[in-house]
Amino acid sequence: MPPSSPRSNIYAIHASVILSLVALSATADEKPDHQKEADAIIKMVQDSQRKGVMGRDRKAFLSIWAEDARLISGRSEKPGKYDRVMTRKQLEQCSKITMSGPPRKGRMDFENTRVTIADGKARFTYRCSLSVPDHLDIIDEVFLLRKTKDGWTVYENRCRLVEVHHGSEVTQYTPETWKALDDQVTEARKQGNPRWLIGALLKSRRLPEAYTELKKLTENEPDNAMDWVMRGHTAMSTVHFDDAVASFKKALELNPTAEVPDSIRIKLKAEPQAAEDLDRKKEADAIIKMVQESQRKGVMKRDRKAYMSIWTKDARLICGRGEKPDKYDIVLQLEQIKQRTETTFAVVVPRKGRMTFEDARVTFTDDKAKLTYRTAISQPERLSLADEIFLLRKTKDGWKVYENRCWIVECHDGSDVTQYTPEMWKALDDQVEEYRKQGDPHMFISALCEAFRYAEAYAESKKLTKAHPDDANAWCWRGHTAIAVGKSVDALASYKKALDLDPGASVPEPMREKLKAKPVE
Fold it and tell me: Any idea what the Cα angle at residue 374 is, between residues 369 and 380, rounded to 5°?
């Protein structure tokens, strides 16, 4: 069954939100001098989760989480490629939607509770049983806490499904179970039936992939209310909250009796009564339209004028590995942005594929605005998801962007899916060090690019072309990495050198056309 059936809609959102952080007692082997603190942790978490998850008390639920907290749903206690991560900010968004209405019916029971404390940090584990009529989920959870001046706070929660009872059917999630479920996905993909594939992805808890397939299905067959219900659940589980609400709303328009969560029905009924500032709403809509049209026309249609129209003179484009500043950030100033577009938008023929946007939100502070959304760029056999933040200020000419930060979130390359979690970045960095030791410069540069460490990759490619000036592939690497770090002039010169050495070198088509139109001296 899907992970969020109508009978148990409290499971629909995110395992680590629903499967609470509760415990009953510290273990017997807890050190006496930590016993009071262990008891305090247990009570704090227990009160928060019972009031939040079962009582729908949003304030109590959010009270225990650190600002940098992460909730991770996976298949085991160790990081895995199918982990799903929810940040504190996303948890707040989720709770706004799900924690409304009367208290939930059901029970939460806990066993195997253990708290260990050392050096101002604590590790809290237990097994949770969450039951509603005809359904029972059993989950193992690990919580990491740190002690602050305000007391203990949770900064990470990892949970994994152990067992599910649905009526008389019992499923135990062992490594063998996960392998069998993955095999079902592979078989369903071969069959070519989208609903079979979605069902297999849902059973295997590969929810981001299921969400992608449900979006395709509802776009191709938009009149099936149940498809929209499933899209709503998977959208919620993969932190696409705006799309979740919109999907549930569409389901109810098609079928007023569609089995949509009660909290969503309450939210949709309350929306017409929301006293929003209409002027700000119009401004927000105008900002969203301006930025997204600029991005779509520029990136997909190669309309340089439309792309450059939204930037201030002091604008910065920051490409990084997350929302916060990082040592691997690439920062481009306006002049570099101009040079990059002059180079990459040289071919006016539109790119094949689609560029869509989700979860768009605008917040205002005086004459400044912050726009956030998720971008999806789909091309044949490839789908890239990136999160973006645009900072704007109001000028005499209207709203303009003075900073844009973007970072990759997920990439689908054929059937291969990469989720860029902190664990994935660490694995990619480890791969860089491995290739550094091996001494193959081409593989080393490739690993740096995969880890989005383009400044280093550019420096290494310059060394490589100096050491091997007759290596066309080396010049291609230099061109690729030069584009990434805003060195457009060097990129063109490098691509020209590669083509001089080998007319069949892997130079992107826009660069070939640019060089034909205006040869580099």
Answer: 145
